[in-house]
UniProtKB/TrEMBL annotation:
One GO molecular-function entry: phosphatase activity
Protein name (Swiss-Prot/TrEMBL): Haloacid dehalogenase
InterPro entries: Cof, HAD-like_sf, HAD-SF_hydro_IIB, HAD_sf
Species assigned in the record: Floricoccus tropicus
NCBIfam families: Cof-subfamily (TIGR00099), HAD-SF-IIB (TIGR01484)
Domain of life: Bacteria
Lineage: Bacteria, Bacillati, Bacillota, Bacilli, Lactobacillales
CDD domains for the chain: HAD_Pase
Alphabetized Pfam families for the sequence: Hydrolase_3
GO cellular component: a single term: cytosol
Length: 265
């Protein structure tokens, strides 16, 4: 029996217009009525998904989200239950490598993005956040740094990823959350990390979790969950590793299909 449904956003719950379809909304409501916890599991901060949580009636002290790719486990009212972060020294270590590869780095701290190499296209993708340009050696010491991001055109980014040194990949989690975004997280902090902490809090077994995603940063939770599901539009490696590939895309109410066939039946 599925008791918790973990959902990625872009390419999964959201369609190409970055909206939740009416079909998906109705299916999620029916799953909630059955007692299933709906947990948004995303790389974004809570601030940038508050409008979605409100739209889905998930703003409550008994509703939860996994944000920053597992770095924070939060109640949807904002209360932080667990957190993992990067130190300024670690960020400088990442920046030494990315700057040598001509990859501009953006550093996310809660609702603020520090653009240490100047403006990047990440600002177009997440316009709700606050953006500050400053050198990396001027990062405030009293902030919690959730993740670091490189946002570049896909072909250039893919070539540069091949040049990332092994020692950096051993020390940090590095993965693509979208075709144009490379993210760095503390080692061992991935979406399944946050979900594992949350089920301990809720008293839910790993086998009772369904996780659905489409990108590389969803792999950990798809591998970990009792029911690991890939969207029809998922990247090949996600489809290969999932227990099941949903026959519909994010533009075809794929989430509603999964709920109807695995939760409501």
């Amino acid at each position: 029996m599925i008791k918790l449904l973990a959902l990625d956003l872009d390419g999964t719950l959201l369609n190409s217009q970055k909206k939740v379809s009416e079909g998906n909304k109705k299916a999620l409501e029916r799953a909630k009525e059955k007692g299933v916890k709906i947990v948004i599991t995303t790389g974004r901060p809570l601030m940038s998904i508050e409008h979605l949580l409100s739209e889905l009636n998930l703003v409550d002290s008994d509703e939860y989200s996994i944000t920053f790719n597992g770095g924070l486990v939060q109640k949807n009212t904002g209360e932080i239950l667990t957190k993992d972060s990067l130190s300024v020294d670690e960020l400088k270590e990442i920046h030494d490598v990315t700057s040598s590869l001509n990859l501009p780095l953006s550093i996310v701290s809660d609702d603020t993005v520090y653009q240490v190499d100047g403006y990047t296209d990440y600002q177009k993708i997440n316009p709700i956040l606050k953006y500050v340009e400053l050198p990396i050696d001027q990062l405030p010491k009293d902030r919690i740094y959730n993740k670091a991001i490189c946002c570049k055109e896909v072909d250039f980014l893919d070539e540069k990823i091949k040049e990332l040194p092994a020692n950096l990949l051993e020390k940090f989690e590095a993965f693509k959350s979208r075709d144009i975004i490379l993210e760095f997280m503390p080692k061992g902090v991935v979406k399944s990390t946050g979900l594992n902490k949350l089920i301990d809090i809720l008293g839910i077994d790993q086998s009772e979790v369904m996780a659905i995603g489409d990108e590389e940063n969803d792999l950990s939770m798809i591998d970990w969950a009792g029911y690991g599901m890939a969207m029809a539009n998922a990247v090949p490696v996600v489809k290969e590793r999932a227990n099941h590939v949903i026959p519909l895309t994010n533009d075809e109410d794929g989430i509603a299909w999964a709920i109807e066939n695995y939760i409501l039946k």
